[in-house]
Every structure is written in structure tokens, then in C-alpha cells.
Design a protein that fits this description.
heterodimer, A: four-stranded antiparallel β-sheet, 11 strands, B: mainly beta, seven-stranded mixed β-sheet, globular
């Protein structure tokens, strides 16, 4: 199975900050990497697919980059509605695996 | 609007069975693969099972293989998960998720999720 490791596991940031979350795969997954946002009690939603493609309706402050084993999700200017947990997920092989999550909290 | 809504969760004892359902609307159901993803208390997301749009092919995580069965009724726009021989470690919120394509392929992602249904396995 491909292991996905996110860092950091949690972070505190202020509105307006630039936030970067890293995801590393245990083997190369090309660009088959997706990012999700999850708020408590709500449905998760996809932000980025294929490492860098922005899902329709997602604000442009979210961006993704990377290929192979190392990937990054960046929020260019954190907004109040962005406080949530973020997960990376590889679709390169089954079982599809997720990172352990990064909780973005308010500083 | 594209929407999926889960139902069927509840409290069961170890060894018992439970059947989850997912009602889909707003898209041509039989055209898309569907999946179940779960989240145990205090843990992250874990993929459980996927089924292709036609219903012919299905995939399972090792943790549930042989105990869970995914199925779909394209005439009723419904996805199901039959869970047998339940264990305490199956306790989780179970999410139904629509995939972005009809087959379970590497370009897919989960593009619509429900709010989940809670399954608790405890004596």
C-alpha cells in the first residue's frame, strides 16, 4: 500500500496568512494526488485534483503543486471559512489512501 | 444539485450486521463510480470500498474484504454497503462519495460527498 504522510499535523494561523501543507507519498504517484477540506459535521469537499487542478467553485486562493512523491497545498490568504482539516489522497493505486490530515486552527 | 445522502447507521453489537444506503440525485447515477469512505472517532479518512458505474467491478480495503459487500441499483439511484461480522474497529462515520468517472481509475477523485452516517459497534 502507498503511505501518505502530511506535515504538519496541525498549525495555527491568522486570517490573511499564507499557509502551506505538505504531503509525501511512500512511492511515486506521478500527479495522481487530490486535496480535500473537511469541517466537523460537514461533508468533505474536493479542492484540488490531479495535483494542481482547481475544482470548480473552489476559491483561487487554494493552489496545489508537486509530482512524484512530494506535493503541496497552499492557501494564499487564509480566510475565516478556511479553518478546517485538510487531507491529501492518492488515486494512483488501490487501496486509495489518505494522509493523516492537517488541522488548520485559529492563532 | 448533485447530492448524496446516507442512511442506515446505528448501534450494533460485535458480530452483527448492518446495511447502509446512499440515495443519489442530480446526476446520471449509472455513469459514475461510487465509493464508501469512513472516519473512526478522532481519526482521519479511510477508503473502504468502490464500485464501477455499471456495478460489475468492486474493490475493497483489506480491513473489510470478505465482511463488507458494496452494491448499487442504478434503476433506483441507490448505493448500498452490506456490513457483516462487525467489529469494534468498524465504528466510524461512513461517507458515501461520488467519483469523477465511471470506472475506478487513477484519474478519479471524490467530487461529491454526503454528510455521513454513524455506525457504532459496541456491546
Amino acid at each position: 500500500d502507498i503511505q501518505m504522510t502530511q506535515s504538519p499535523s496541525s498549525l495555527s494561523a491568522s486570517v490573511g496568512d499564507r499557509v502551506t501543507i505538505t504531503c509525501r507519498a511512500s512511492q511515486s504517484i506521478s500527479r495522481y494526488l487530490n486535496w480535500y477540506q473537511h469541517k466537523p459535521g460537514k461533508a468533505p469537499r474536493v479542492l484540488i485534483y490531479g495535483a494542481s487542478s482547481l475544482q470548480s467553485g473552489v476559491p483561487t486562493r487554494f493552489s496545489g503543486s508537486g509530482s512524484g512523491t512530494d506535493f503541496t497545498l497552499t492557501i494564499s490568504s487564509l480566510q475565516p471559512e478556511d479553518f478546517a482539516t485538510y487531507y491529501c489522497q492518492q488515486s494512483f493505486s488501490t487501496p486509495r489512501t489518505f494522509g493523516q490530515g492537517t488541522k488548520v486552527g485559529i492563532k | 444539485d448533485v447530492q448524496v445522502v446516507e442512511s442506515g447507521g446505528g448501534l450494533v453489537q460485535p458480530g452483527e450486521s448492518l446495511r447502509l444506503s446512499c440515495a443519489a440525485s442530480g446526476f446520471t447515477f449509472g455513469t459514475y463510480a461510487m465509493s464508501w469512505v469512513r472516519q473512526a472517532p478522532g481519526k482521519g479518512l479511510e477508503w473502504v470500498s468502490s464500485i464501477v458505474g455499471s456495478g460489475i467491478g468492486a474493490y475493497y480495503a483489506d480491513a473489510v474484504k470478505g465482511r463488507f459487500t458494496i452494491s448499487r441499483d442504478n434503476s433506483k439511484n441507490t448505493l448500498s454497503l452490506q456490513m457483516n461480522s462487525l467489529r469494534a474497529e468498524d465504528t466510524a462515520i461512513y461517507y458515501c462519495a461520488k467519483e469523477s468517472g465511471g470506472l475506478v481509475v487513477i484519474t478519479n477523485y471524490f467530487d461529491c460527498w454526503g454528510q455521513g452516517t454513524l455506525v457504532t459497534v459496541s456491546s
